Amino acid sequence: MFLDATLKQNRKLIETAIQFHQQGLISPNTYVLDLDMVKHNVQMLSKEAKKQDIELLFMTKQFGRNELVARAIVDAGIKKAVAVDPWEAITLNQYGIKIGHVGHLVQIPKGMIRTILQLEPEFVTVFSYENARQISEVAVQMDKKQKIFLRIADTEDFLYNGQNGGFTLSQLNHDVESLMRLSGIEIAGLTSFPCVLIKDNLPQVTQNVLTMQQAKKLLAEKGIHDLEMNMPSATSTATMKLLKENGATQGEPGHAMTGTTPLHASGDLPEKPSMVYVTEVSHLYNHQAYVFGGGFYPRSRMEGALVATDKRNLQRVSVIENDPANIDYYGTLETEDAHVGDTVIYAFRTQVFVTNAQIAIVENINANPKLLGIYDSVGHVIPTNNIDE
């Protein structure tokens, strides 16, 4: 999906990935991330956010909750993170990263509420009155008042399968006064997901945003004002103006930091591609080449790959996407013009934290490429003797 954009805007990343694989510095099934380009992308996002007066909270799941990358993002201008689940919040806190938002998309299990509140997250999202009551009870025991977001999800809103939950407008109207009586929480904002989708290469707000606006009016009638309007999904320099026009006060960039939202496939945005997937040809069978897998993602929408004997000899080939019902032991290339051991480069949309891949962090690729470290898909260091001290 992002192969052409990467070739056009960050070819050195591809060349570095090929070089490091062929030198044995990285193995197949490894994402290679250009840390300098991530910093550039964050600076572009921060500049646009300041222009639109929108606060940004950064998401790390796309690149595997990586400490080096998270710290670089903070240094480049986005100071607080959003955690997709409580386990990510714990991991980021261990790195010294401030947690701006947790509980959305994944709620906090009852037995973990105290642990998460001890991290002092700025906002916690709840899907129901029962979730809010549990948060409030623990907060009262801790002698604190936790700011919460209410997740809004009316019956006609767009929700991804596996992400259902939240307040319908009728449920909100029914529960709001009970919520206001909970002494351990403060209703500080609203959120939903997804708030922006890309259709025909244009960003559009979803019905969810209109429902959030209705929910905001409902709460105003109850005397609840000055709400944060947290509108995640496809946050980038190309969508922040649209978000602002629809009342957003917060966005949550993830793929924009690696230049991999659907809009970035065109290669024309300030954020540039900063991550590729590296593997190698395992074997040939029935006129096709098979490559080592483990890091493919069912929603990747990949269209092609590069087969390389070295960084100067690149052959573009078509790919056959895996059936998501099966384990991705291998990927398939529509070619027999490849050799066992050849390097293969993909550039597609991914979520590293749900794969079995490694991630290699590199810097200074335009002058003297350096491998900073290799990590597993949830941020743990993988010891290796192949990294220069």
From TrEMBL:
<protein>
    <submittedName>
        <fullName>Amino acid racemase</fullName>
    </submittedName>
</protein>
<dbReference type="InterPro" id="IPR001608">
    <property type="entry name" value="Ala_racemase_N"/>
</dbReference>
<keyword id="KW-0663">Pyridoxal phosphate</keyword>
<dbReference type="Pfam" id="PF21279">
    <property type="entry name" value="YhfX-like_C"/>
</dbReference>
<dbReference type="InterPro" id="IPR048449">
    <property type="entry name" value="YhfX-like_C"/>
</dbReference>
<dbReference type="InterPro" id="IPR000821">
    <property type="entry name" value="Ala_racemase"/>
</dbReference>
<dbReference type="GO" id="GO:0030170">
    <property type="term" value="F:pyridoxal phosphate binding"/>
</dbReference>
<dbReference type="GO" id="GO:0008784">
    <property type="term" value="F:alanine racemase activity"/>
</dbReference>
<dbReference type="Pfam" id="PF01168">
    <property type="entry name" value="Ala_racemase_N"/>
</dbReference>
<feature type="domain" description="Alanine racemase N-terminal">
    <location>
        <begin position="34"/>
        <end position="262"/>
    </location>
</feature>
<dbReference type="GO" id="GO:0005829">
    <property type="term" value="C:cytosol"/>
</dbReference>
<dbReference type="InterPro" id="IPR029066">
    <property type="entry name" value="PLP-binding_barrel"/>
</dbReference>
<feature type="domain" description="YhfX-like C-terminal">
    <location>
        <begin position="276"/>
        <end position="369"/>
    </location>
</feature>
<keyword id="KW-0413">Isomerase</keyword>
